[in-house]
Task: inverse folding
């Protein structure tokens, strides 16, 4: 697993650097091609004497493709989805990830009894299906309008946005809405809410050097978007998601009745899949900020209970019962994380950066996400061997780290649900994260309907003129 995660970390950073050069659409297709190459190398087992080396290289290249895809998919969906549907659709993407894990575990369970090389090849060959379907499907979708505007291709941006927003048959009202939305994107780009062209090296240099005196904050004393994205992914890892996922097989093997790790993996994959609709309901009622805060509190409570159960071993000596109870609490933990932090982190990390630097910001933050997964895959086997750490101490540590994640969500995470991306760029500069839920577009920005206040249109400053297409 560590090789796959390592490749994903480098792939995410590389994907962020290539996002503006290739475009969001072609970045997803590149990730599919890279992943197919990695799977092809893993299929070479039995044909060559150095099969193990090819499998390791294939896992590394496959992870590279996974990292690129994690950036390209979030980037594309963030910039193309309508603000009222963006959170639901990206949460659905996370649900599809859980569905993919469930399908993969089911196939592994079906062929797990076979010991010949054909079972391995069948399992690996199934991985060809999904990147090929993804590459074919993305071929028929338009490029991101925001990326096209950022590259100065305004006419193509109008056509792309028209395909995304205008259902058939086309009406004058829908055409007007498309023109208004594109005008907002164009004006946001022209007024310099984000730099027009920023190289990857300049972005990293600004973050590491120019922000040191401001403690990674912007001149407006708000946390820098790149710093925020990196810290957000770090707080997500502090919930212990990777440690729990990697330690489940070992905990299951300690129970003779549950000696097959695939059975546990099937159950927990199904639990994660069921959590996606739950997140959509919670997100609709509470929004992103409150979902993260209350989700972190629930996760912390779950860790405390798991630690208390682990301490009960020294008192009752009923290890069999304790294992079962801990498995139940771990299932509850996965449900809580998958219905709060897992989708919300990727949604917010995609919304916070400005369009000019969104690709690089998502790439670096996703790279940090996969880098934490590498560390977890390395130290988890050693922690599992320590009885006291597995039973209580590690869960107590995760409980306090989850409380730290709650504090981060309260003080630094703004409420971005159902807001246009151009509004989010302003809300980071003008408003404190704790009061962003009451933020309203001022008379110096925006002219579309605000979904929170139901105001039809905000006033447009006189210095701005509506962007009109040559088609009109």
Result:
């Amino acid at each position: 697993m560590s090789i796959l995660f390592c490749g994903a970390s480098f792939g995410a950073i590389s994907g962020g650097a290539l996002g503006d050069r290739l475009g969001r659409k072609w970045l997803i297709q590149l990730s599919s091609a890279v992943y197919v190459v990695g799977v092809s190398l893993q299929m070479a087992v039995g044909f060559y004497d150095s099969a193990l080396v090819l499998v390791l290289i294939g896992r590394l290249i496959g992870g590279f493709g996974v990292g690129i895809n994690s950036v390209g998919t979030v980037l594309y969906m963030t910039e193309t989805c309508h603000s009222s549907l963006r959170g639901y659709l990206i949460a659905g993407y996370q649900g599809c990830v859980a569905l993919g894990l469930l399908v993969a575990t089911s196939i592994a369970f079906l062929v797990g009894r076979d010991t010949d090389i054909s079972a391995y090849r069948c399992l690996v060959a199934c991985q060809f299906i999904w990147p090929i379907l993804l590459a074919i499907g993305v071929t028929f979708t338009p490029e991101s309008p925001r990326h096209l505007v950022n590259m100065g291709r305004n006419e193509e941006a109008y056509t792309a946005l028209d395909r995304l927003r205008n259902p058939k048959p086309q009406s004058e009202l829908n055409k007007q809405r498309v023109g208004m939305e594109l005008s907002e994107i164009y004006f946001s780009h022209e007024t310099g809410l984000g730099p027009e062209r920023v190289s990857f090296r300049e972005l990293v240099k600004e973050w590491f050097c120019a922000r040191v005196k401001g403690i990674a904050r912007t001149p407006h004393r708000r946390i820098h978007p790149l710093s925020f994205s990196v810290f957000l992914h770090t707080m997500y890892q502090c919930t212990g998601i990777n440690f729990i996922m990697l330690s489940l097989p070992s905990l299951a093997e300690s129970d003779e009745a549950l000696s097959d790790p695939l059975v546990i993996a099937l159950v927990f994959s199904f639990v994660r899949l069921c959590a996606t609709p739950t997140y959509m309901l919670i997100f609709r009622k509470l929004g992103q900020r409150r979902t993260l805060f209350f989700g972190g509190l629930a996760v912390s409570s779950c860790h405390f209970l798991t630690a208390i159960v682990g301490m009960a071993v020294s008192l009752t000596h009923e290890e069999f019962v304790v294992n079962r109870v801990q498995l139940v609490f771990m299932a509850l933990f996965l449900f809580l994380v998958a219905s709060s932090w897992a989708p919300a982190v990727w949604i917010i990390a995609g919304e916070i950066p400005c369009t000019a630097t969104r690709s690089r910001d998502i790439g670096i933050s996703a790279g940090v996400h996969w880098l934490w997964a590498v560390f977890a895959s390395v130290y988890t086997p050693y922690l599992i061997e320590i009885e006291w750490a597995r039973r209580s101490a590690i869960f107590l540590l995760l409980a306090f780290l989850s409380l730290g994640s709650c504090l981060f969500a309260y003080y630094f995470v703004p409420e971005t649900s159902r807001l246009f991306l151009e509004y989010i760029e302003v809300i980071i500069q003008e408003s404190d994260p704790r009061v962003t839920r009451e933020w309203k577009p001022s008379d110096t920005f925006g002219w579309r309907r605000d979904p929170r206040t139901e105001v039809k249109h905000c006033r447009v400053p006189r210095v701005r003129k509506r962007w009109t297409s040559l088609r009109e």
The chain has one domain: 2-141+217-412. Confidence is low (pLDDT under 50) at residues 210-221, 443-472.
